[in-house]
Design goal:
About 45% of the residues lie in helices and about 15% in strands. The chain is globular and about 60 Å long. The relative contact order is 0.14.
Length: about 325
């Protein structure tokens, strides 16, 4: 039997100036595009989370996940990722269970530790407490989905015999992501899989599995990929450049790749594409490189690509989506 890998799309629902459109129309077009992508054969869709941004970056991914579930029939729906330390673990357990029930068990809950000081300050959480907030919340969510009363007493949370309903008939996979070695080790220790971004950490995650006495081949990687794939990569890079530069530098300013005061922003779009996580490929190169990635890491269960960059028109992102569906994914699936 051949290996099964899902191929999906990644959405952040950012709608920034100077390219913004009315928010209701933006959300409607995104849902239309996701439903159409399922018709093209995409297997999954992934959402992410931030708060208090100028561009509407998804603050409520579980709400959007439920809306996607109502518009699709086959796609798996996941988060890559939600910021778990900001959440009440019982509340997120309830909401995720409900999304699972609404989608017939097609939902996966992916979480990470976060990094943006503003969000932690506003929600009354301390960045230094991320490890214990993560580990305790994961334990509580798993207990909540069991259907048994949750009795948990930790450093950050205290739950005295509460039973969470409704119980998901198909408990979501609980996936953990992060860019640091401790986050990857945590994914190996308590996660159902590792959410990677830009190919970072596959080796650290599998080494952590081995160090914990687990078989690396039993690991699971859900890979967020930053590929920009086009018949004319240089022309596409010029067209999408302002949106890529906006995306990369916003993440840098927020602290995604280290302290903002010591992590320089990219000066222009070519520098962002060359020095960031992006991969600028034509179709032949994409098939070769993605095939090599899948061969090197048999743990990969899903690869998902940005459907559109912040501020990019939906129709322009759709051109890359169609190219993936019609010319890249068939070749990759044939190798599997």
């Amino acid at each position: 039997m051949g290996r099964s890998v899902n191929f999906g799309l990644w959405y952040d629902f950012r709608n920034p100036a100077p390219w913004s459109m009315p928010a209701e129309r933006f959300h409607a077009q995104a849902l239309d595009q996701i439903a159409a992508a399922e018709g093209l054969g995409f297997d999954s869709v992934w959402l992410t989370e931030h708060h208090f941004t100028d561009d509407g970056y998804t603050p409520s991914p579980l709400v959007i996940a439920a809306a996607i579930g109502a518009r699709t029939t086959r796609m798996r729906i996941g988060t890559n990722l939600m910021i778990l330390p900001l959440q009440d673990p019982l509340r997120i357990a309830e909401d995720a269970a409900t999304v699972s029930l609404l989608t017939g068990g097609r939902f996966d809950l992916g979480v990470g530790g976060g990094y943006r000081q503003l969000e932690f300050d506003q929600f009354g959480r301390d960045l230094r407490h991320r490890p214990s907030l993560m580990e305790e919340a994961v334990a509580i969510i798993r207990a909540a989905w069991s259907g048994e009363p949750v009795d948990f007493h930790g450093k950050r949370f205290d739950v005295a015999g509460l039973r969470v309903t409704p119980v998901p008939e198909h408990p979501p996979r609980l996936l953990l992501g992060g860019l640091s070695a401790p986050a990857m080790a945590r994914a190996a220790a308590i996660g159902d899989g590792f959410l990677s971004t830009g190919g970072i950490g596959h080796d650290v995650y599998t080494d952590a599995l081995r160090a914990q006495g687990k078989r690396p081949e039993d690991g699971a990687i859900y890979a967020g990929h930053w590929g920009i794939i086009s018949d004319d990569p240089e022309r596409e890079a010029a067209r999408v450049g302002p949106h890529v530069l906006y995306q990369a530098n916003t993440y840098i300013r927020w602290g995604a790749f280290g302290p903002p005061e010591t992590t320089p922003e990219f000066l222009d779009a070519p520098a962002a594409i060359a020095g960031g996580l992006y991969e600028l490929w034509d179709v032949e190169t994409a098939v070769r490189e993605l095939g090599a990635l899948l061969k090197a890491w048999p743990q990969i269960k899903d690869i998902h690509f940005w459907a559109k960059f912040p501020g990019e028109r939906f129709e322009d992102g759709w051109k890359r989506i169609e190219l993936l569906a019609n010319r890249v994914l068939p070749a990759l699936r044939a190798t599997l």
